[in-house]
Structures are given as structure tokens and as C-alpha cells.
Write a structure and sequence with these properties.
The protein is of the alpha+beta class. It contains 18 helices and 45 strands.
Length: 882
């Protein structure tokens, strides 16, 4: 329904305290591992943590989707908004796993039972395959892993598809004839050496038949640096995925095994006589000295060999005194500087070159850790800013200051060679490059410098990817190919770099023309303090437009019979310093009557918010769709989108952009007069808003007020999605709801996914068993089982046409068995499956009506699906006077 746009706050991997131990392990290996999964929370966090933190392997997690189509167990954010939240949650988990994160263009469109449907929704098999191949060619893993098996035992069609694609990508990435457009842009073919598949023995299995696996790894092994097992440490990360209901996840210590099967390999036999391996990298030389074998030039090979010896010396020295490792590490930096002199364009040379560059970067990080050097860059408010509103971003053209603090926590004086900030210009128009010709920074002291800057007018660019219709588009449109797989698209380069020397430790010289490049360097993003739920923390500086323009709500359902003008509310915020002005207008379908046509807008300071109302009379209304757009003109530019910061105290941050558009669904629907509806919210949904938009009287009943609420004032009470799962007070007062029905009221219960708790609670008036049955194909044929029942006739006549145009799925968590008092009203099923009749049940209880529905009205009504709206109105009207 809405075009959702994404603007990035750079998400760099943040080091945890445990990363110090991980750093020395990473220095000793060149191993690279890449795992492919379908959704956030699918990842084998224990294995990723074992390889990354336990063995120093450079590890990448490719998650095909962002979980947009899942259920939110903490709030009412769905679709792309949920995808943003889950991306941030996964990135928080990744900090614990110690991995780099990538995604593909495909979206989670909800549950799918087959890979065939999944590929069809994803625009074909090659769309995600191309992205997987791209990431393989960029990251160049030795070992490629599929979390799933690519068979029916994986269950979810997305899971099966992820493994099927990974198997094909293993060979496709090394074939220059596959996706040659990537080769033309500079990527080179890359053939991983080994491919493993997972889910070969069932998730969580402690034993596995010998023939089903190749390698068995104990992720329950305790790591002395982490102070717990790799599996437990991964669970600490996984708990950040709160929208998945994982916040309280805990597991005891003890052995935990990960079983994987070698599916394909370009190596000679790596298994023993029983067909097993001891490690994923068996048969692969991941040693640093082994890099020299890839280099034809003897001088370059010699430098790599010497660097490997110095790395060993540094690690040995660090066993007794971290500071003792500095001198050999500086020697490593000098030897690797200038790519260690590697020449040539052969595949072996390119492999060595990339690994040398990585080792140089790791060496700089190790030096910074050994010296306890730190750097912090914080934006200070512009002098002209009189607003007390928290500043979370900066707009093009604005002047501001950045305070940089370089901390020397070592026992050595440090000489700053340069202090540079990217992505900015200074007030006089020059690139901000402050060379600090100052005395050395004494041990335990700081060096401070303030940059006075101006953000270039061209700094703000449109987002890198979007979906025009998130309800129906399952593939993101990407404007720039190089951004395809990054978590949030473009990175704004507000980064400060400090290059320094250690004068009292002789720094070996590299190439004659690269003395400065031979020095240690530390970098940090520019940050701003932000108040988030749970506390205050720093987030990376973002670029945002000068004005935010929003129409709320973004979707509206309008009865075709309406004659009065529609009220449209527009909110405008200014992010510019000082007084600003402009003109706000509304764009509507031709022949619409808009009053007023436009309105003047003025602001006195940054952070000020103004609200405006327009009245719109649409032309002769017929069932269909219309679109309204708000546009602000100011200083020769137009603004027509809103933005809001998505964050949480334990997460990173992201600016969620939405166009200033209201999508209007015009629905031919009749509503009963005088019916009063009470709505008890569960996990969160927008059904009450839609009912109010079409003219029904809906009152929210807080669950904690249910015990004292006078229910006789309502004709119908509706329980929101997953209400019994999330509202303890509802469970405690279920008898009151059944008494309400017995006295003549209508109660509608929507799906719950805690099947055991629901069945154990005996919440229904007659025996019924909730199951996990679902119909995932949204256009699966529906049969009306009781065509004479009043629910299909009042106040709207329901026909087969009312099941056209549904989105994502028919329904989920249908009843599997029920007492004869219940009447099944509808039947549908996915292809090649039996009829599912437990999705809509109605029972008379006492004087009233009890209805259970697993049909996904919580998705259909906000999307403006006409038939679903008409049917739901009939359901809430069941029991009222006909």
C-alpha cells in the first residue's frame, strides 16, 4: 500500500570487550566462512560464534530476507517497518556472533509451503541467486554453508529455497558466464572450496546417524575469553531479537552439537575412513605463511613470510605483556604496507592481495588495542540552534561543529601525524583535513580538536532501495547495484581518522614514498547523543531532509456511500536552524475538490512542528483506490516525505522514510447503525482504526481494565491478534467474556500462536483444539460452507468475489477439532492439501454468539481489501438485530 524508503545510519560492527581475545585469533588465520539463511533468527549463532570468536575465522552471514512478513511479538509494527526493526535486531545479534552481515533484494512475504511458490513470489529463481553469487564474489569464502538442507524437512518454503540457491551458487560464483554483468563492474569469479548443508539431523539434535553428517562441532564448549560457551554467548546475542519473542531465551551450559554434511567440494578427499571430518576447514591451508604460495614474486612472498613470523612473535610477546607486542606489530605493518609489493592480476595474486589488505587492517586494530588508543567524534549543535529539541541528524547546507577526542591510554607518548574527517567541507569550503602539528600526546592524556564544518548541499541523496507496494511486491527495487546487499544501503562518510606514530618505538620503514601510510591509524564515526527507550546512548550522525512532511494515517478506508468531505491531516517538521517558510499543498485525483488549495507554512526555529487540515471531496466514488500526496515547497525545493528514527537502547539506529501519501481504499460496505464495539488489543493491529474509518463505533478496552469494565454497553467485543498470548489479564477474566456471550453479546477471537497455552486454558465455550494449520496461498479458493447463515447476508451480501484480492495469506492457526456446537463457515486449502475448515467457526452460546477466526483479517483490513472488510463487518454484526 505504501512506498517505503530507506535512509541509512551507517551500521559498522561495534567491538565488544571480548573482541580483544578474538583479535589475536583472527591474526593467525586467513580462513573465511559464509553462511546463508532465509530470515533473521534462522542463523546457527553457536557455530558462527565458534568459528569467528573461537577460531578467528572471518565470517559472513547472508540473510535472504529481513523478516518483513513475520508476526511481531512486541508491538503493532508490520511489513517493512517490522523488517527495519528485525534488521536492527539482527545487527545487534551479529555483534555477539562476530560476523559481517549482508542481505538480498527479496522480501519475506509470509509463510510459504513450497520453494516453487517462493521463487515465483521472488520474481524468479535468478533474482536471489544473483545476490548470493555477488556476495560470494565480494567476500570470497573458503567455506560456504547452507543452514538448511533444501528438502521438505526444512518446512518453510523460504528455508528450502535458501539451501537450494546456496547449492547452485557454490558453482555459479566461480563461473564467469553466470551473471556476467557483475564481472563487467569489476567483480571476479570466486570458487569456494567446500559446501556444507545443515538440518541433516534435526535442529537441536544431540546425536546423528554417521551417514547423515560429515562434521560435528561442539558449540557448547566453554571459551575462557567469553567466560561461557559459544552457544550461550550466541544466545545472549539472539535475545536482542525481541520482536521474535526471544528476549527471555536461556539455555543451560553443556555440550551442544552442530551437524553439517559436506555437499560439494573442489578439493580432493578430506574425509576419514568413516566419511567424517574434524573441522570445516580440513584440507584448506588457512595459515598466514600459506599466503606466500599464492605470490609469484619472490620479494613479495618473502615479505609475507616475514610478516607471518612477526605476527607469531607479537602474539607470543602479548602472552606476558600486551605492550611488548607493539614493536613486532609495527614491523608487520611496514612489511604489508603497499600490499607487500604484490604484483599481477592472476587469481592467486588477487587472493593474496585481498588477504594482505585484511591482515594490514587487522594489524592496525591490534596495535590500537595493544596501545589502548581510542578516538571519539561528537557533533555539537550549531551556534544558531536555539531549539531544545534533541538533534539526531543534520540537513544539507547546515553549519555545525564536531569535537574530536584522541585518547592515549598507553605508556608511550604518541605523535599525531594527521586528524582527518571525511564527508565534510569546512566553513571556508576546503576539505576538513586538520594536521595536528602538536607535541606528542602524553601517556594517559587526550588531544582535542573541534572542526567547524558545513554539510555540502549535495550530501543528501535518495535512498538506495524501496518497495512501491510492500503488500504485494516481494522484491526491492535497488537504485545502485553496489548497495544491493548492504544492510541499509548507502553509507554517509562522516568518519574521523587519526594517524599517529610511536616515537620511542622505532617504526620500521615501508616503501620510501609511504612513510605516513605506514603508521598506525584509528577511525570512528561521528556520533550524536540520542535518548532511546531504556537510556541514552550515542548513534552515528545521519543526513536528513530539511523538512518532514507526513499524512497520518498513511492508509484510509472510505465507504463508497460517503458524501461528506474527507478530513486530511498533514504534519510538517522543520530541521533547519532559524526562521523558515514555505507553502503546503495537497495533490489529489482530478475533479477532486480540495479546501483550501494551499496553506502558508512558517517556522521560527528548528524542531518546530505544525499541523494542517485539508478537506477533500473525491469525485463520484466507486470501489477502488485513490491517492493523496502532501507537498511542501520551500526555498525552491519540494519536500514530500516524512522520517522517524527507529531505535532502541540495545540496538543501532535507522531513519525510516515514508512518502507523504495517503492511500485511500474506497469500499462498497454497509455498516449497522447503533452497534457499539469493544476492542481488546493483543500484540497490536490496525483493525479498530479501519472500523472507525468506515463509520463504526469502536472503544478500546485496556486488558488491565477488563475486570472492572461494564461490558453491557457493547454489542460485540473483539479480541485482537494473539490477545491470549500477550494479555495475562485476558486469561484471568476469560469467564467474564463468556458470560458476556451467554447474556447475548458477540465475541470474536482472532488467532493465537501459543497453541499449548490456548488449548490448556480451555478458553472456548465448548471443546475445541487450536492447531498450527494455515493456508499460505492468499488466493487459495474459498468455499462457503453455510451459505444460508446470516453472517453471509447481513449487513453485506458475501459472495465468492469477496475473497479476491487478499494479500500474503488466507489465514493461520486454524482449529483442528471442535465440538458439534461449532459451525464451520468457510473452507480453503493450499495446493495439494486437504480442506481446512477450522479457520472460521461460529457457535451459539446462551443468548449470544462466539466466533473464532484464524483468517488474517489483521493483514487484510489495513490493506483495504474490500471483501475482507465486508466479511469482518458481518462478523462483528452477528447477533445484532437483522
Amino acid at each position: 500500500m505504501r512506498l517505503l524508503e530507506f535512509h541509512n545510519l551507517p551500521m559498522r560492527r561495534i567491538l565488544l570487550p571480548f573482541s580483544r581475545g578474538n583479535s589475536r585469533r583472527t591474526m593467525q588465520t586467513t580462513g573465511r566462512l559464509m553462511m546463508v539463511v532465509a530470515h533473521p533468527d534462522d542463523e546457527d549463532g553457536g557455530l558462527l560464534t565458534l568459528e569467528s570468536r573461537g577460531r578467528g575465522v572471518q565470517t559472513l552471514l547472508l540473510t535472504l530476507t529481513r523478516g518483513e512478513g513475520g508476526q511481531n511479538k512486541t508491538g503493532d509494527t508490520f511489513s517493512d517497518g517490522l523488517g527495519i526493526l528485525r534488521t536492527l535486531e539482527l545487527l545487534a545479534s551479529d555483534r555477539y556472533y562476530g560476523v559481517e552481515q549482508r542481505f538480498t533484494r527479496v522480501a519475506d512475504f509470509g509463510y510459504s509451503k513450497t520453494p516453487e511458490e517462493t521463487f515465483q513470489k521472488w520474481g524468479g529463481h535468478d533474482v536471489p541467486l544473483a545476490d548470493i553469487v555477488r556476495v560470494i564474489r565480494e567476500f570470497r569464502p573458503d567455506v560456504l554453508m547452507a543452514r538448511f538442507s533444501g528438502t521438505e524437512r526444512d518446512g518453510h518454503g523460504h528455508h528450502q529455497a535458501s539451501a537450494i540457491l546456496t547449492k547452485e551458487a557454490f558453482r555459479a560464483a566461480g563461473d564467469p558466464n553466470r551473471f556476467p554483468e557483475q564481472i563487467k563492474t569489476g567483480l571476479q569469479p570466486w570458487q569456494p572450496k567446500k559446501l556444507y548443508i545443515g538440518n541433516v539431523c534435526g535442529f537441536g539434535a544431540s546425536t546423528c546417524a554417521d551417514e547423515n553428517y560429515t562434521v560435528k562441532l561442539n558449540t557448547g564448549e566453554e571459551d575462557p575469553v567469553l567466560g561461557m560457551s559459544y552457544f550461550q554467548f550466541a544466545i545472549e546475542g539472539l535475545r536482542h531479537q525481541e520482536s521474535q519473542g526471544l528476549a527471555d531465551l536461556k539455555f543451560p551450559s553443556g555440550p551442544r552439537f552442530a551437524f553439517y554434511k559436506l555437499e560439494d567440494s573442489v578439493l580432493s578427499k578430506t574425509t576419514d575412513g568413516s566419511g567424517h571430518e574434524k573441522d570445516l576447514f580440513d584440507g584448506i591451508d588457512t595459515s598466514v605463511p600459506g599466503l606466500a604460495q599464492h605470490v609469484a614474486d619472490s620479494a613479495a612472498a618473502s615479505k609475507i613470510t616475514q610478516a607471518a613470523e612477526k605476527i607469531s612473535a607479537a602474539l607470543h610477546a602479548a602472552d606476558t605483556d600486551a605492550a611488548s607486542a607493539i614493536a613486532p606489530l609495527l614491523s608487520v605493518l611496514a612489511l604489508l604496507n603497499g600490499n607487500a609489493g604484490i604484483q599481477g592480476r592472476s587469481p592467486d595474486s588477487r587472493t593474496a592481495l585481498i588477504e594482505v589488505q585484511d591482515k594490514e587492517k587487522q594489524t592496525r586494530e591490534a596495535i590500537n588495542l595493544a596501545l589502548n588508543v581510542g578516538i571519539k567524534a561528537s557533533m555539537t549543535s550549531p551556534l544558531s540552534d536555539v531549539s531544545q529539541k534533541e538533534r539526531t541528524g543534520i540537513s544539507p547546507g547546515q553549519k555545525f561543529a564536531i569535537k574530536v577526542i584522541f585518547h592515549n591510554g598507553s605508556q608511550h607518548p604518541l605523535k599525531l601525524d594527521a586528524l582527518v574527517i571525511d564527508g565534510m567541507v569546512s566553513e571556508n569550503g576546503m576539505v576538513a583535513d586538520q594536521r595536528a602539528n602538536q607535541p606528542p600526546v602524553a601517556p594517559g592524556h587526550d588531544y582535542e580538536h573541534t572542526f567547524k564544518l558545513q554539510l555540502p548541499e549535495t550530501a543528501f541523496t535518495k535512498p538506495g532501495f524501496h518497495r512501491n507496494d510492500p503488500q504485494r511486491d516481494s522484491v526491492y527495487t535497488v537504485d545502485q547495484p553496489q548497495l544491493i546487499t548492504l544492510p541499509f544501503g548507502a553509507i554517509f562518510p562522516a568518519v574521523v581518522h587519526a594517524r599517529y606514530d610511536v616515537p620511542d618505538i622505532a617504526s620500521p620503514k615501508g616503501p620510501a614514498d609511504s612513510t605516513s601510510a605506514n603508521l598506525p591509524e584509528i577511525s570512528a564515526p561521528v556520533t550524536v547523543p540520542v535518548n532511546a527507550a531504556g537510556g541514552t546512548r550515542n548513534q552515528e550522525l545521519a543526513v536528513i531532509p530539511a523538512f518532514s512532511v507526513a499524512i497520518e494515517p498513511g492508509d484510509q478506508v472510505v465507504p463508497a456511500s460517503i458524501t461528506a468531505p474527507i478530513n486530511i491531516n498533514v504534519t510538517v517538521n522543520s530541521d533547519l536552524d532559524g526562521a523558515q517558510s514555505g507553502v503546503l499543498r495537497l495533490q489529489a485525483p482530478s475533479n477532486s475538490n480540495i479546501s483550501p488549495r494551499q496553506q502558508p507554512v512558517s517556522f521560527s526555529h528548528r524542531g518546530e512542528q505544525k499541523q494542517f487540515e485539508f478537506k477533500v471531496s473525491l469525485p463520484a466514488l466507486k470501489q477502488g483506490h485513490a491517492e493523496l500526496r502532501a507537498v511542501l515547497s520551500s526555498n525552491g525545493k519540494e519536500y514530500s516525505e516524512s522520517y522517524a528514527l527507529v531505535t532502541r537502547a540495545d540496538l543501532g539506529s535507522f531513519y525510516y522514510f515514508q512518502p507523504a501519501v495517503q492511500h485511500i481504499s474506497i469500499v462498497d460496505v454497509n455498516v449497522p447503525k447503533g452497534l457499539s464495539i469493544g476492542y481488546i488489543m493483543g500484540a497490536g493491529d490496525d483493525i479498530p482504526t479501519v472500523l472507525q474509518q468506515i463509520g463504526m463505533k469502536v472503544t478500546s478496552i485496556p486488558a488491565d481494565k477488563l475486570a472492572t469494565e461494564n461490558l453491557t454497553q457493547y454489542g460485540t467485543i473483539v479480541l485482537g491478534v494473539r490477545a491470549y498470548d500477550t494479555q495475562k489479564e485476558l486469561v484471568a477474566n476469560n469467564k467474564k467474556l463468556l458470560d458476556f456471550v451467554s447474556s447475548g453479546g458477540t465475541l470474536i477471537v482472532q488467532n493465537n500462536n501459543s497453541v499449548g497455552d490456548f488449548n490448556g486454558g480451555h478458553f472456548t465455550p465448548y471443546p475445541a483444539e487450536l492447531g498450527r494449520s494455515r493456508v499460505s496461498v492468499e488466493d487459495a479458493p474459498v468455499q462457503i460452507l453455510a451459505p444460508d447463515d446470516p453472517v453471509f447476508h447481513y449487513p453485506n451480501e458475501i459472495s465468492q468475489k469477496d475473497f479476491d484480492g487478499w494479500i500474503q495469506e488466507r489465514g493461520l492457526y486454524f482449529m483442528t477439532t471442535w465440538d458439534d456446537h461449532f459451525k464451520p463457515l468457510l473452507s480453503c486449502h493450499d495446493p495439494n492439501e486437504s480442506d481446512q475448515k477450522g479457520g472460521l467457526l461460529l457457535a451459539k452460546y446462551g443468548k449470544g454468539t462466539y466466533i473464532y477466526t484464524g483468517y488474517a483479517f489483521f493483514r487484510q483490513l489495513p490493506a483495504g481489501v474490500p471483501g475482507a472488510i465486508r466479511l469482518f463487518v458481518n462478523l462483528v454484526s452477528a447477533g445484532s438485530n437483522h
